[in-house]
Amino acid sequence: MKFTKHHLCKLPHCYAVTTIEIDGKMKYVLATDDDGPCYCIDSESHEIETVWEGPGGTMSLVPLPGKNGEFLASQRFFPGFDAPDCEIVRLTRINGKWKTMPWLKMPYVHRFDILERGGAYYLLCCTLAESKKDEQDWSKPGGLFVAELSPDFSTPEKLRQIAGGMTRNHGYCRIQRSDCCYALTACDEGVFEVVPPENRNGEWSVRRVLDKMVSDIAVCDIDGDGLEELATIEPFHGTDFVVYHKEGGTYKEMYRYPEKMAFVHVVWGGKLRGKPVFLGGCRAINKEMFMLSVESGKVSIKIIETGMGPSNVKVIAGKYRDLILTANREAGEGAVFEVSD
Predict the structure, then answer these.
(1) Which long-range contacts (CB under 8 A, 24 or more apart) does 130-138 make?
(2) Considering 102, 182, 280, 283, which has the largest number of Cβ atoms within 10 A of its Cβ?
(3) Bridge-partner residues for 328, per DSSP?
(4) pLDDT (0 to 100) of residue 178
């Protein structure tokens, strides 16, 4: 595979990335986790629009299904891990201008998403903590909160807690299936599978699938045996990138990234140019982004880039090329890689 990089923008502490579609055209959305802007960038011309100048503190960006470019974003997740004033806002583009509207106050929400099952849409919020005395206080763990959403995605009247006791509830992976969209969440207590109810007013399923301290999580059948492997970052903002293979109903370590790392933050699993891979990246030491694949029965490493310190990626599959939208936080850069055969 060939990786061709395109610089998109300068954005100090660039952290969150996603894509939206406006009038049939794909746009990149990038935001900072510091006090600062959010940009919407045309995927072809790379023309930049400013969505907001501040306040920033954005951990998650979530498109609203069928709403022509509208999306939800978290703001004010600062300072550091202490975010009592964090909220979710709704962004709408009207007559070429972006409008920010309050949507939901949600202290300490680090990841959130909209999951669909059986024709219903559900909000899932993952909180890093319940409350804090200071940034390093982890005495009150976070949890999972849910609500069914109306067709117009108005603010839900009430959220219901479905799980608690999740210390440093940081990691999130969305999994799309033909009959259901569900999630994996990761915290000090392990990795949990979170599945919406089969029918409205039914019960959510929350099941631990890996009993390890995990910061972030992704899945992919990297070895092609029909069973998905788990790739994890361990522990919180950790030093290790580990791949687990399922044997006899349990996950056993299959691979551990051999190089010394610190502040590992990127983990993604899926196909690039039809090949199953994991992507990883870290924000310290070599600050590399890398790709893992299985070649002749062994895990192979390809270094995509060093020195940039990525925080998150979004992969977009295409017919003739794939794209990796990248938030290079430590370099203060938004970028996209074209991946070709």
Answers:
(1) 130/164, 131/84, 131/107, 132/81, 132/82, 132/84, 132/108, 134/82, 135/79, 135/80, 135/81, 135/82, 136/81, 138/167, 138/168
(2) 280
(3) 310, 333
(4) 87
Q: Which residue has the tokens 């029918």?
A: 199
252 has a pLDDT exceeding 90? yes
Answer yes or no: is 334 within a domain. no
Q: Is 274 helix (H, G, I), strand (E, B) or coil?
A: coil
Per-residue pLDDT tens for 30-51? 999 999 999 999 999 999 999 9
pLDDT in tens, 59-102: 999 999 999 999 999 999 998 889 999 999 999 999 999 999 99
87: its two tokens: 């909220």
CA atoms within 13 A on the CB side of 207: 8
CATH number at residue 28: 2.40.10
C-alpha–C-alpha distance, residues 251 and 80, integer Å: 33
pTM of the complete model beyond 0.85: yes
Q: Residues 120-130: pLDDT tens digits?
A: 999 999 999 99
The span from the CA of 304 to the CA of 326, in Å, is 12
Rg (CA), the chain: 19
- What domain range includes position 31? 15-105
Residue 93 lies in a domain: yes
Domain count, the chain: 1
> Is residue 79, in this structure, part of any structural domain at all?
yes
